[in-house]
Amino acid sequence: MRLTPNLVEDIRRIIPARVLIDAPLSRFTSLRIGGPADMVVEPGDPGVLVELLGYLGDRGVPRIILGAGTNVLFPDSGFRGVVIRTKTLRTLAVTANGSDHAKIIASAGVPLLAVIGRASRLGLKGMEPLWGIPGSLGGALAVNAGAGGVCTADYLEELKLLTIRGEERLVKKADLDYSYRRMKLPRDSAIVEGTFRLSRGEPAKIKADRDAALDRRRMGQPWKEPSAGCVFKNPSPEKPAGAIIDRLGFKGARAGGAQVSQIHANFIINRGNAMASDVLELVEKIRERVKEAENIELELEICVIKQESGND
Question: Would you place residue 310 in the very low, low, confident or very high pLDDT band (cuts 50, 70, 90)?
Fold first, then answer.
C-alpha cells in the first residue's frame, strides 16, 4: 500500500514519535547522498517501535530500518514509504558483572563506539579491533561488521528482534545464520537489542590495542571524507578488494561528484555534490574491470537501497 495523506495523518496522531515528511535522506547517511523519503519516523523507545511496525505491517506500507546510515546508499529519487531510524534507541547496560566476564546489553541505536568504550573501561577484552568503526550497533550487527580479524558476531550472545507485526523474538547466537560481513536475519524482522559476553583482560593492553586499531584506521582510510565505508567485500584474506582495485589503477577515478579514494581504493568518497548514480557508475566500472582482469565477481559490502524496496 502507498503512503497516502490519510495514513500520514494517522501515523502522526497515533504514533508518539518524531515524524518528518519529505525529508532528504542525505541528512541521515554518512555518504550524504539520497533523495527525499515520504516519511522518516524516529521512535524514542522499543514500545513505540513495536506499535509502529505493527501499524505499518497491518497496512502493507513499505518501510525500511535505518541505523546511523554509515554503510547505506539511497537513490537520488529517495524512498517511497517509511524510513524508521533506530538511532534514537540508546539503552546501554552491564549485567552479570562477575570476576571473569560481564555482559553488555545495548539497544540498536547505541553507537558501536559506545559499546566498545564501555567494555574497555570495564577491562573487558575482544572488541578492540572494531574501535573506530562508525555507526550504530544495530547496523553493525545487521552486516556483521568487522576489522582486524574480529566481527561483531564473535562476542554476541543473543539478539532481540521485532517482527513486522511488532512481535518480540530472542534469538541465540547458535541459531543465527552469519558469516563474513553477513548476518541473515529472519524475514521481516529488525534488530532492537544485542547482548555481548566478554571476558576480563588487562586494562592497559586493552587500551593499547584499541588505540592501535584507531591509529591504523585513521592512517589507512579516508575518515575525514564522506563515505559509506568499504564498498566491496574482500574476495579472500589473501585478495583484499582495495589492493585489487588499487592495482588496476582506480585510485582517484571520478564519476560526477564521486571519487575512488586516493588513500584506500575500496572507499568511494563524496566530493561535495555526488549523486547515487555517480557512485553506482564507479561501482559498475570497478566490478567490470575486476571481472575482466582477475575473473573475480566483487560483492557489495554497502547496502544499496531501491526507491520502493523494504526490509526483508
Answer: low
